[in-house]
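Colleagues,

For the teaching module next term, I've prepared a clean inverse folding example: a structure given as tokens, and then the sequence designed for it. I'd like students to try predicting residues themselves before seeing the answer, so please don't circulate the second half yet.
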């Protein structure tokens, strides 16, 4: 599959266009995805999320082995990482493995628990990358993100159903 084919697939998947931080992020995504062992949802999410930060793009080969498909947990302990880069890596690893793989870096139960907490929604999404993290989630879980209605339409339907289901006859 060529870059052009990957781009067309990404744009037609949900009749939407993917959102990228900048041109470097977009180029990185298509280049690395083309090199990946697979273009499945796990790889798409991992590569997209790792492309968000300049740090994680720069040190991609120290984070993930594209030939073997193995993540490199030890990267989370490297001095070159910014706090934002660590958050990006944790989300990417979680979307790729469905686990908190770096918890295994700690022998004590307390250390493992502290590391697992760093994968919490509040620890990951409380940053300027949150909008882009949603894109990564949509790539990882496309079956749950197809043809979503606008939030206003969903809320209007919910309000209508609440009023319709009211037992006391009063509309909310």
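(Answer key — instructors only)
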């Amino acid at each position: 599959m060529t870059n052009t084919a990957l781009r067309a697939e990404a744009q037609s998947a949900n009749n939407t266009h993917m959102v990228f931080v900048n041109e470097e992020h977009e180029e990185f995504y298509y280049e690395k995805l083309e090199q990946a062992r697979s273009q499945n949802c796990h790889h798409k999410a991992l590569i997209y999320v790792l492309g968000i930060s300049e740090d994680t793009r720069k040190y991609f080969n120290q984070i993930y082995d594209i030939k073997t498909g193995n993540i490199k947990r030890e990267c989370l302990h490297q001095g070159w990482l910014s706090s934002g880069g660590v958050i990006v890596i944790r989300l990417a690893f979680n979307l790729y493995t469905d686990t908190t793989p770096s918890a295994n870096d700690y022998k004590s139960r307390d250390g493992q628990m502290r590391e697992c907490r760093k994968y919490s929604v509040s620890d990951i999404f409380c940053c300027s990358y949150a909008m882009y993290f949603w894109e990564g989630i949509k790539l990882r879980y496309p079956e749950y993100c197809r043809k979503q209605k606008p939030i206003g339409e969903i809320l209007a339907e919910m309000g209508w159903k609440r009023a319709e289901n009211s037992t006391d006859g009063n509309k909310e």
